[in-house]
Amino acid sequence: MKYLLLVSHGTMAPGVHSVIRMLLGERDNVLSYSMEDGVSADAFVEKLGDVIEPIGVDDSVVVLGDIVGGSPLTNTLNTITQKGLLGNTIAFGGLSLPMAIGALMAIDDGLDDDALVESVLTEAREGARKIELALDDEEEEEL
User: Which domain CATH number covers 30?
Assistant: First the structure.
């Protein structure tokens, strides 16, 4: 099975996971965990081990972390390495809802790793943009 693992500071990862459930339904292959305020790295790693318990040596993992170099993502990759799964892992920083949905759709579509990476990065780039707001003359007068 190919898993999507969301990790973050605060409650971002479980929040994104909650939105995925709302939009796409419950998925057995989506896992999430976050490092909440006041939680030590050791406590995070211990609980993360429980979260990733279902992932076996024949499985693969797409990890989306909130910040490249941040403690949740770094500790997650260290834990995955200790479990012997790093060779079956693709990791990204900059977690966003479009990235997570794009990754899950790529997994569901059975895309190979290169296509999955391109899909997630495209979603990351396209998911952030300035929205042009235009008011016509009537709306401006009413304000």
Answer: 3.40.50.510
Task: Provide the number of structural domains found in the chain.
Answer: 1
Q: Taking the chain, what is the end-to-end CA distance rounded to the nearest angstrom?
A: 54
Supply 129's token pair.
């943009």
What is the residue range of 111's domain?
Answer: 2-142
Q: How far is CA 52 from the centre of its chain?
A: 14
pLDDT in tens, 67-117: 999 999 999 999 999 999 999 999 999 999 999 999 999 999 999 999 999
Neighbours of 64 (CB within 10 A): 28
Nearest Cα residue to 33 out of 67, 82, 72: 72
Distance CA 3, CA 29 (A): 5
- β-pairing, 2-9 vs 60-65, is parallel
Write out pLDDT tens, residues 1-51.
999 999 999 999 999 999 999 999 999 999 999 999 999 999 999 999 999
- Burial class from Cβ neighbours inside 10 Å (0-12, 13-18, 19+) for residue 87 reads exposed
